[in-house]
Write a structure and sequence with these properties.
Blueprint: H1 2-23, H2 28-50, H3 54-76, E1 101-107, E2 110-116, H4 134-137, E3 151-152, H5 160-173, E4 192-193, E5 199-200
Antiparallel strand pairs: 1-2, 2-3, 4-5
Helix pairs in contact: 1-2, 1-3, 2-3
Length: 208
């Protein structure tokens, strides 16, 4: 009979898990809770039963099962504190790749949003950026006209996915990382808000 009780406990717990899981994405806290519940119910019931306290074992089994089910539904059901789906990271993407500084460049008489490298973070050959001269940044000298000093934020598409692909490919070519866009080797797939305020639902292929 004890085995029957334990079997029922496991079945009920698993059914509750399936119900909650069907409403949510994967939740490691819920998994730990269910495993702990099964361990406590089975362990406590067996301990009491092996001590010759059959009635105590039955009462413990019923009480513990009820408590774990009630609190499981309270804590992990849709809309509860522990059931909230984590937000994408980062929630917003920086205007520029990591460690670069936003700079509005004047090119062909028109302003252009770019990013500049002040510390030599860009490492790759032909696609890499030159270190932007501090005198030009401070207005002491004219800014360089060569494109190799500027990481352009301009893209030829209004689609957020295509924008992300172009910026990612450009950052990889320059040997840069950009949290939420690329780790420097491949693009990141997420649902973050992009540099221009648009939602970016997908990344781009790995670099070759």
């Amino acid at each position: 009979m004890l085995a029957t009780y334990l079997g029922i406990a496991i079945i009920v717990t698993v059914l509750v898990l399936i119900y909650i899981y069907s409403e949510l994405t994967f939740n490691i806290g819920l998994v730990i809770y269910v495993v702990s519940a099964i361990s406590v119910i089975a362990g406590g019931t067996l301990t009491a039963f092996n001590s010759g306290k059959t009635l105590t074992a039955v009462l413990f089994f019923m009480g513990a099962l009820a408590i774990f089910v009630i609190f499981g539904l309270k804590w992990f059901s849709p809309g509860s504190v522990f059931a909230k789906t984590p937000v994408s990271w980062p929630p917003t993407i920086n205007t520029c790749p990591d460690y670069l500084v936003h700079y509005v460049r004047t090119k062909d008489g028109k302003p252009e949003n770019t990013c500049i490298d002040l510390i030599g973070i860009s490492k790759k050959g032909n696609g890499g950026l030159n270190i932007f001269p501090k005198d030009a940044l401070n207005g002491i000298s004219l800014p360089p006209s060569n494109d190799s000093y500027y990481f352009s934020l301009k893209t030829d598409s209004s689609d957020s996915i295509d924008k992300n692909k172009q910026l990612c490919t450009r950052a990889i070519a320059a040997g840069l990382t950009w949290e939420g866009i690329t780790n420097g080797e491949s693009c990141v797939i997420d649902n973050s808000v992009g540099p221009d305020g648009t939602v970016i639902p997908a990344g781009c292929p790995k670099s070759s």
